[in-house]
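Re: beginner question about structure tokens

> Can someone show what the tokenized structure looks like for a real chain? I only ever see the sequence side.

Sure, here's an example I had lying around. Input first:
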Amino acid sequence: MSRLVLVSNRLADPRKPAAGGLAVALGDALAASGGLWFGADHEVIEDGDPRAGELRVQRAGRVTLVTVKVARGDYERYYRGYANGVLWPVFHYRLDLAQFDAGHMDAYRRVNRLFAQKLQPLLQPDDVIWVHDYHLIPLAAELRALGCQQRIGFFLHIPLPPPLILAAIPAHEWLMQALFAYDLVGLQSEADLNHLRSYLSSEARAEVFSSHRFGAFNRVLRAGAFPIGLDVDAFAALTQGAAARKTLATMREQYAHRRLLVGVDRLDYSKGLPQRLRAIRTLLERHPETRYSATLIQIAAPSREEVDAYGDIRRELEGLAGAINGDFGDLDWMPIRYLHRTVARNRIPGLYRASAVALVTPLRDGMNLVAKEYVVAQDSADPGVLVLSRFAGAAEQLTDALLVNPYDTEGTAEAIRRALVMPLEERRQRHERLLAKIRRYDVHWWSKTFLDSLLEAHP
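And the corresponding structure tokens:
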């Protein structure tokens, strides 16, 4: 059996529940082969520190965790400057927020080269290497330059934009050519795959052998849509945990005479939070019967607050929530409870289960596992309703949700009203179909399907 080698910007100990479903699922695949997980060390050292490039090796059961120390200047420009200052906004269609700086791209290449130089001596001839996310797009090209012949796959967890948006990135040709060093590129959705196919055809003049195979730069690339799933059984168990059950009881006691709506997001401009609050205002204006009867609990966990755009969206959200509460609230009721903090993961399933409606309405998202978590947490005898943005990757699978255009304030408000009054039988039928699909295409299906395809893709 070939050893699996995972590479990502940051690592997590797969034995710890706090690592999350993805880390646990990948940990299972790693443990099966006695694998290795490689990434950046959590300790970013100062520039000039002689420890730059040093490796830290730890054991987590059968899994070996290896991290490399990166100097602060390079890490800041690679991570905050290029990965999150260029690729994140562009890939989420926000060219206006991208900060194109040649120095950031140079650092991005240097750190990827450092990863390759430190990883290559650790590799075995029959290893299968799986690289994760936008931080490490050029890693396979750097490994190939060092002579690596192993199978190498790449998975992009965020969306891939259309060709004209991609082409706004300076040196986009280099970035996309780097994908051809991989044997398999995995994307979240068919829409993302279509964007890649269109880009390669129009910008790279690639030969399109089929909908999944492309020839260019003297290599053949295979690409496919592999929608990431949830560790369903683990999350269902979390729903039955003490913290979740206590949260459920508290919510039901405090909101005994109210219907709860819930939103759980990172504070990010891609999540459509201002648009969501405006839809709540429209709902209250146009449907007075919803006043006093429904409350939105919106959790917006802190995220990259040192970036100006995140400070701007926080101020906008706080202003909107305050204005809506001021205009519609009363002594014994507020339409919105806005929390700008992280809520413990083991409490979240109880909040989901107490909520009649979940609002998952990003402007653009690779997948969005909150949508799937909400469905899994529901009581099948009396389930809530998922209101889901059509621009989330999850919308391709979860067609029994109420799909909305988050830019359409009135349409989103009407979908929320429909969710609040949906008959029990329709809620049960929708939930049954949603849960069946989530169970079928869970995180274990995702990892197995990708790795099986990677083995088939290698020449």
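Each token stands for a local structural state, so reading them left to right follows the chain. The chain has a mean pLDDT of 94.
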